């Protein structure tokens, strides 16, 4: 998979057209997924300004700190002029110069730092500040074949880590000890960063975003393991399996795990073009509610994934946008019983022209170690 396939230079042209169509004069993108999506540049986010100035019409300019110029030049920023600034100088006039004329509305990276937003507001008095997502959402929400391949590579890498869980997850070890081993394996499997490691045993499993703790894992306790990282491509993995170690799981747990397993499979099977995000959410939620666990499924069914770990589309009540081929997202229902235990099953899937492709392919049954 060539970098030109993953980050094609004509994306800048598509983004410029969309910027004009949205009634914006330019996009101003600081380090993050939008900048990387358009240029391939995995820029360092720091107090020194890095900003892609992408006018609706005209030449794009990447403003960078002088000490990061070599990194910017090494990135596949084809067709982008690079302008640098040195410490002790004000970089914001460079943004104004790169805009090459007065502007009435610009789109800023959604996750730009507030200090940069305020400096741009001061540098561009009278310009309306809007969100770049108005333009980039539609470009990023459908993945190209190269992006799907990158997500599949990430999915295969995190699957390898789950398949090794028996090496580390044992009663008597703490969640944190197990997580340290998992983190090393996430890197060994090909990720360049470890984004999160949740090891949630027993009652901790009832907290969906529990991280880890120094509590030892008990015999027969259900353990929710939700892990993910970022590959060199920039694309991310995210996969949850639930385990039980050293002995049989409690009977009440086994009862609802079977419900959860059916619900997760039903939601995956429901994915195809035209089905809304809300309907995919309902496909997971209805069997769980019918079994009496509705309130225990306390989050949405899924989130998009790509250069960000969470991005559009979201599978959630109220999202009436139909799914389309190329959209990639998680299917991750959970059941959480406070004070007792919890379970979640998560796969990343891609909506295809006629159905769905799972990018995580390990078994979703409860895994006894
Ligand atoms: Zn996850
Ligand atoms: Zn997730």
From TrEMBL:
Q: Which one Pfam family would you cite for this protein? A: Creatinase_N
Domain Peptidase M24 spans what residues? Answer: 150-352
The source's superkingdom equals: Bacteria
Q: What sequence ranges are listed for the domain Creatinase N-terminal? A: 11-141
Q: Which InterPro entries match?
A: Creatin/AminoP/Spt16_N, Creatinase/aminopeptidase-like, Creatinase_N, Pept_M24, Peptidase_M24B
What's the protein here called? Peptidase M24 family protein
Species = Micromonospora arborensis
């Amino acid at each position: 998979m060539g970098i030109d396939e993953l980050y094609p230079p004509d994306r800048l042209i598509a983004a410029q057209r969309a910027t004009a169509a949205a009634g914006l004069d330019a996009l101003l993108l600081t380090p993050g997924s939008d900048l990387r999506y358009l240029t391939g540049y995995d820029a360092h986010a720091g107090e020194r300004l890095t900003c892609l100035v992408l006018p609706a019409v005209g030449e794009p300019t990447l403003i960078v700190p002088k000490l990061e110029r070599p990194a910017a030049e090494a990135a596949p920023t084809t067709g982008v002029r690079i302008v640098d600034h040195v410490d002790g100088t004000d970089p914001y006039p460079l943004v104004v110069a790169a805009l090459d004329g007065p502007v009435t509305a610009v789109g800023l990276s959604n996750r730009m730092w507030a200090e940069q937003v305020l400096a741009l507001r001061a540098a561009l008095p009278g310009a309306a500040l809007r969100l770049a997502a108005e333009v980039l959402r539609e470009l990023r929400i459908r993945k190209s074949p190269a992006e799907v391949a990158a997500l599949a590579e990430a999915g295969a890498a995190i699957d390898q880590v789950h398949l090794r869980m028996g090496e580390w997850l044992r009663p008597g070890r703490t969640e944190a000890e197990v997580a340290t081993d998992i983190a090393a394996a996430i890197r060994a499997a090909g990720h360049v960063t470890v984004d999160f490691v949740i090891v949630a045993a027993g009652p901790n499993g009832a907290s969906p975003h529990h991280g880890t703790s120094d509590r030892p894992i008990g015999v027969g306790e259900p353990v929710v393991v939700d892990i993910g990282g970022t590959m060199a491509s920039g694309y991310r993995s995210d996969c949850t399996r639930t385990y039980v170690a050293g002995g049989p799981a409690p009977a009440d747990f086994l009862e609802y795990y079977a419900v959860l397993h059916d619900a997760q499979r039903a939601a995956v099977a429901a994915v195809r073009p035209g089905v809304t995000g809300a309907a995919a959410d309902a496909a997971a939620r209805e069997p769980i509610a019918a079994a009496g666990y509705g309130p225990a499924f306390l989050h949405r069914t899924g989130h998009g994934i790509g250069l960000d770990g969470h991005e559009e589309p979201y599978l959630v009540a109220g999202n009436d946008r139909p799914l389309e081929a190329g959209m990639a997202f998680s299917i991750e229902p959970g059941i959480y019983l406070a004070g007792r235990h919890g379970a979640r099953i998560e796969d990343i899937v891609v909506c295809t022209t006629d159905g769905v492709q799972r990018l995580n392919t390990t078994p979703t049954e409860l895994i006894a170690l």
